[in-house]
Amino acid sequence: MKNFVYNIPTKIFFGKGQVKKIGPEILKYGKKVLLVYGKGSIKSNGIYDKVIEILKAHEIEYFEVAGVDPNPRTETVYHGADLCKKHGIDLILAMGGGSTIDCSKAIALQSKYDGDFWQDFYIDRKYKLIKDVTPVASILTLAATGSEMNGSAVISNLATNMKMGFTHDRLKPVFSVEDPEYTYSVSKYQTCAGAIDIMSHLFEQYFSVEKDGFLQNRVIEGLMKTIIHYAPIAIENPRDYEARANIMWTSSLALNDLVDYGKESTDWATHQIEHQLSAVYDITHGIGLGIITPAWMKYVLSDENIHRFVDYGKNIWNLSGSDREIAEKAIEKTQEFFISLGCPANLREINIDDSNFDLMAGNATFRGRIGSMKKLSKEDVIEIYKLAL
Ligand code: NZQ
Ligand code: ZN
Predict the structure, then answer these.
(1) How far apart are alpha carbons 159 and 346 in whole angstroms?
(2) Binning pLDDT at 50, 70 and 90, where does residue 210 land?
(3) DSSP state of 324
(4) Residue 38 Cβ < 6 Å to ligand 1
(5) Mean pLDDT of the chain
(6) CA 313 to ligand 1 centroid distance, Å
(7) Which of 19, 41, 69 to mutate to test the pocket of ligand 1 (most atoms within 8 A of CB)?
(8) pLDDT over 90 percentage in the chain
């Protein structure tokens, strides 16, 4: 096992009614808050009113960035950062799903920086220039990305058709509220996309060529089984508390570093391949992953890495047979599961053809080859898009 530093500082308030704890928690950082939220779900399900009531009771002044897009944009980041600078914001409170939380983190970066966050951090990765960020906290309303407990922020730049993630420890939320009841209003479609996103985060950290990671992979398998068990239940009955609670906590544990500490390598090619689909076609991240993942699995499977597919097939799907049979059947089972949740089977079903494969594959690999199960070139990525057509 590789050396690692365990650093998961986000304080989690998990369960029914936990939002009541945020008043004193916010006051640890100051009295001026920037509220960041999406297109209105928090207003229709009552979360907004509840939070405002708490802020007023604690005499906390608030400003707002409303209307964050799914696949959040650079423009919203600049707007939010201007508000932070103008009003001397002490804490950014994201209320929503991954898009809102990611947007808040990027605002946090830009709010304490005079240069351009996109060019300097997302493109040029000048980590050393980050001296300070505004603290971010979140009230999670959609279980999917793990953004509520990690340091990543994925932003889309429409001017260059690029969607990219950036990760820094300072961007980990200082606290997050996870109330499973807040996810009762999430649609079947977004519940399906969220479940697939969580599965994909687990795949990205499970599938590696190295034969290390015994402990990490057993934890990952437990998390995968939780999603396979509870996602269909939440889709069937959106108000099933146990299902929503299990999915919500799994979303956080799947991508807060816990399962990759100590591992030799992780993959993450599928995410980079999907991000370019979302950048060009503005599709839902989890749906893109549901279509790309089986294609990626078929493309990378080789004698060198088949052991990992065999573990996956035996431990998750109880398969038996030759290694090849188990691996191929496991890929089939994965796709069947995604389709059973409501995910389209291929790109054609969401009206995507091959016209942008070259552009997207170029953007996915602009720093060089991606992935670890198989190191993928631009040409490889084009082949994966073709397999997903
Ligand atoms: O905008 P509102 O009205 O809030 O509606 C949202 C949005 O339309 C809605 N929604 C959220 N909570 C709801 C709800 N509707 C009803 N009831 C609720 N309680 O759901 C829609 C999707 O929201 P979004 O935040 O976009 O979804 P998600 O959480 O899946 O986030 C996706 C974004 O996160 C990025 C993705 O690429 C994508 O841009 N990711 C972030 C990661 C990270 N920070 O670590 C990792 C992931 O791999 C991912 O890349
Ligand atoms: Zn994801």
Answers:
(1) 27
(2) confident
(3) H
(4) yes
(5) 97
(6) 30
(7) 41
(8) 98
Q: For residue 304, report the distance from its CA to the centre of ligand 1, in Å.
A: 36
- Atom of ligand 1 minimally distant from the CA of 200: 48
- Asked if residue 41 has pLDDT above 90, the reply is yes
d(CA 60, ligand 2 centre) in Å:
33
Q: What is the pTM of this model?
A: 0.98
Q: What percent of the chain is predicted at pLDDT more than 70?
A: 100
pLDDT at 107: 98
| 3-class state of residue 68 by DSSP | coil
Query: The tokens of 131 are what?
Result: 């001296």
Distance of CA 141 to the CA centre of its chain: 13
Helix, strand or coil, per DSSP, at residue 135:
coil
User: In this predicted structure, what is the pLDDT of residue 211?
Assistant: 87
Token pair for 217: 């992979």
**112-123 mean pLDDT:** 97
Q: 112-118 long-range CB contacts below 8 Å, 24 or more apart?
A: 117/77, 117/81, 118/74, 118/77, 118/155, 118/157
Q: Which of 154, 187, 282, 292 to mutate for ligand 1's pocket (most ligand atoms within 8 Å of CB)?
A: 154
* 3-class secondary-structure state, position 332: helix
* pLDDT surpassing 90 at residue 304: yes
Going by the DSSP 8-state scheme, the letter that residue 69 receives in this structure is P
96 lines ligand 1 (CB under 6 A): yes
Ligand 1 atom 39: the closest Cα is on which residue? 71
Number of neighbours of residue 169 by Cβ within 10 angstroms = 13
**Full set of structural domains in the chain with CATH:** 11-182 (3.40.50.1970), 188-387 (1.20.1090.10)
Q: Is the CB of 97 under 6 A from ligand 1?
A: yes
Residue whose entry in the numeric block shows the structure tokens 């990992």: 308
